[in-house]
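[Q] Does anyone have a clean structure-token version of this?
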Amino acid sequence: KLILLDSLLQEFSAIIKMSGAAASKKLIYFCGSMRAGRQDVDLYGTLVSKLGRYGEVLTPFVADKSITSMGSEYTGGDGAIHDRCVDHLRQCSVVVAEVTVVSMGVGYEIGRAVAMGKPVLCLYRPQEDKLLSAMIRGMDNGAGLRVFDYKPEEVDTIFEDFLN
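[A] Here you go.
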């Protein structure tokens, strides 16, 4: 009986440790342009992969090369896409947005995340003759709402600082 009890206690302890690890795992909502243009899909793949080191990326489909700007990325149409994304925003612990390609959807996601009190990191690659929206750049508060001009080779440091 003691051996059985000890075995059960060890199993229960392992379950408790696993559930604690799952509870502390970051849930990351990554957003990037979908219908406004897919020219950065390769970069999105790199960013999603790097974000995976910090937790679970709830939106890996943003980096799916088979999704085109004209193709539906989810069965059920626009309403289902919206509802699924808002559900993921509610679940996530942090939002990371690549905002170089102007996208109303990404702006909407950022606005919803801010309204929900989520930490938000926006990444922008400066371009000649183009400025980031003042509504995005202006939200940077130096704490939970951050906007960085960056080069892809700099994201490791930015992620490390923001996500840890």
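[Q] Thanks! Anything notable?
[A] The two ends are 45 Å apart (CA to CA).
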